[in-house]
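Here is a tokenized protein:
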Amino acid sequence: MKIHAAFTVPHYWDHLEAIWKHLPDEIRGSKIQSVHVRRHSNPDDLVLIAGFGDLKLADDRRVVFVEHGAGQRYVDLDERRQQYYGGPYPDNVIAYLGPRQSCVDSVGLPGFAICAPVCDPYELMGEERVCAITWHWRARRVCPEADTALPHYIEHLSAIVERLRVNGWEVLGHRHPRLRTAMTMWENLDVDEVSVTEVRERAELLISDNTSLAYEMAYLGRRNIVLNAPWYRRDVEHGLRFWSNPAGPMMDDADELLDAIDGYDTLTFPMVSAYERWMSDGDDGLRAATWLSTFAAGL
């Protein structure tokens, strides 16, 4: 039996590789990008998948689903449309690796709480006065809270970048890979657009609207400022980001954010986590691979 990793987008691979690379040589299978697994596998092999949309790659092979987010779930999605932890999953999904035990327990499959293996390579602190800004994708079809807040801030973004620089920050730009409409945004602002890897490597502060990256940053001891938009409803409770455990102080508009940048050193940043432990100790991926190896041996 081999255990393969199949994915369509780079950030899914980041989460899979953090586990897959620790598998013993004799069971570690192929890295399979954007093609059907059947071409590269045997019927008794397992496939690691990190996104609902990628389940189609697995064909009829058995799947271990790896949650690539922090465990957000949107309560007003009915079961047929739910694409966050808890499923529903097709019958060939036989195990689940999720960020914390409550996610694993909700699925009803054999599973293991893996915390955040993708954070393993990174130091607990970023570089002083390096700030990354990122935006979620246009996911309004999921629900209003999943949508990007960018339209609410776009006309003020130049002023936000300038205010950060005046206060001594180096600014890095980032965006969800699916936010294709913003491909030239950072270039037009004379801001370097960087990969999620560089955000994790360098940023002391992340300013974001809705992303599991914020919880990864908190797991690494970094700080977050969270941006709201008028279309984010305050009368629904999704948990985690909305509204029980935001990753940092929340801002409702650009003026509030500009004031926060000026008063950064006096802001209160609560300790938050979407994971079982407060800080990464660098071996979440190894623990996940160890569990997965034992699980596979018992099949």
